[in-house]
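Figure S4 source data
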Amino acid sequence: MSSPSPIEKLSSLLCRLPGIGEKSARRIVFHLMAQPEEFCREFAEAIRSLKERLHPCPECGNYTEEDPCPICGDPFRDRTVMCVVETAEDLVCLEQASVFSGLYQVLGGRVSPMDGEEIDRRILETLQRRIRQYGVKEVIIATNPCVEGDLTYFAVVDALKGSGARLSRLAYGLPVGGSIGYADRVTLHAALEARRQVAETGS
């Protein structure tokens, strides 16, 4: 059997990305073929540099080129409040919306029994350590409003028992089943402002 052509191979790889089907993948491939060679080179280099230059921040888990990341290393961030998000993409969306000025903790996933996913215990231990280290007074649990987001929220609450921090959760200005990654600035601001306290953990 002959090996797949470059067009077939790239189309197959693109189909593995979220939201891209066969037709969309093929359209992207032929669009790339119509671009100047220099553009394709830059495109390939940008993809390669994602893995070569970026790594999770040892503190918050955000993707960064330096340790710690610029957010964790910023002395002007409010270290008394921390926002827990599922992914680095959620963190970026909150940052771009300029609605939060505290610290973050990226969970790197969510609890999903159907997919066999759970939160890495080491990340939860890092979260516990940072709360103690910075004397965090409030932890905002910004998981997405869906079944998996609810399960993830309960896992975080359970892990933070006895931390001494006040726990709150984003208000449901976000549509049920939606994602922080698709929310606009106004929606995110409203969800943060109207967040509700869910627990007062003992120390």
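Figure S5 source data
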Amino acid sequence: MKFFKKVSVLAVAVLVALSSYAAAAASLTGLRSSSTTARDRIVFDLSEMPLYQARPSDDGRSLTLDFADVDTALFKRIAVRTSRIEAISYERHHGHFYVTVALAKGMDYSIGNLTNPFRIFVDVAPKGALTAQRHASVPRPSVSPADTDTPPAKAELPRMEEKQLAAGLTQREYVYADEDGQVTAYFIEADPARYRVRPALARGVIPGRQTVSGIARDTNAAAAINASYFALSGELIGITKIDGTVVSSTYFDRSAFGVMPDNSFVFGTVSYNGTVKLDQTSLPVSGVNAERGEDNLIIYNRAYGRSTGTNPYGLEYVVRNGRVAQINTNDSLIPSDGYVVSVHGTSMDAFAAAGVRVGDPAVLTEDLGEPWNRAVQVLGAGPRLVENGSVHVTAGEEQFPGDIRYGRAPRTAVGVTQKGNILFAVVDGRQSHSHGLTLTEFADLLVQFGVRDAINLDGGGSSEIYADGDVLNSPSDGSERAVGSALILQKK
């Protein structure tokens, strides 16, 4: 896993689930140890929860905690040696602070997080004696019938209910407990030979907002989850490509999920670079299906609806069949077989100075990089959660703020399992039955459920999963939130 310094994110729109601010580095203020007849415990005291990774050695005799961008000015290194812990060593290197715990022979460990105040603890005990679970591991569930109406007592956790919705479509609900309370997660697994996956817009247009269940019903979806980050207006934030057409773009390079023409799946980082050439003058695209700002060049296509809805302070070139068909001042009708180039300020002046006229050739070039140019469906959100079967959270690299990077919250993800199946996942949060997960905890859970690759989608009150004609989870707002888009499964 790569770690990056926390940075502030310039907000380009008002987000429902994402706000920007500069996050200060977490401070490691102390280390404590204690021993009981059952186990030894090491506790790290912190000002906030840092980004960290736990790495066991190949032989299992040591555990290294890799803290990224953590302040150790107040930290006093102490020696710990017990019958279970042979030693603790410390090292700072290239902005990382490494703490290695050497275990005595026959010992095992577990890791947990606590809040109020923030702490990370490591328990060490003889193998098989620990009841807490390893960080990056989830308790193995017991399967019970999905139609039971009796909730389990806490002592009966973990528990998983499984239901076959149709051939190639399985629903699971998984409940487990950690030291901070209960977690409830929901999964839909689909066989790509029987189901296709694609993004779907709220009410079929941008901007628009609609509940996930509403989008699912309108598209006859077998299952759906919330998808893109979005602005209050309903404009999408992030690259979205539906049936080969780019319907939204982004200012950031962010993780994405894609479907290729052969129905294989791709994960990675996607960016948007667009150029419009009218006659002999080329200008960069500022955005797709977004509100036109100062000096912008915005592309409006059929996904935006009937007209551009722009003000009269620009110019608009309506393009059909590779030619400028009309030139208007504002609110142009969007052709179903073309697009509108809407310009303002310096972009408007450049085309006007070039004397662009009706009938001039028009070429729109959009480059997402490979393999995204060839992808039929693309959903950009982020950060990455799982890569090649291992936890790989890229929140720092993708410039997500601290509340997204470190906090526990409701979460949504799309992934592909080791078997090649599509997996929709949602975890409830901010409720008594489920406190939510950090990104790393969510990635751990996905890996335990056999995920090979996965990205995070919009979360918080937007997190929702729908299947079998019903909302499966409990949205944290108390009701369904109207969102900008959903990721849907449709029977082939």
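The two ends are 37 Å apart (CA to CA). The chain has three domains: 28-126, 190-272+373-491, 273-367.
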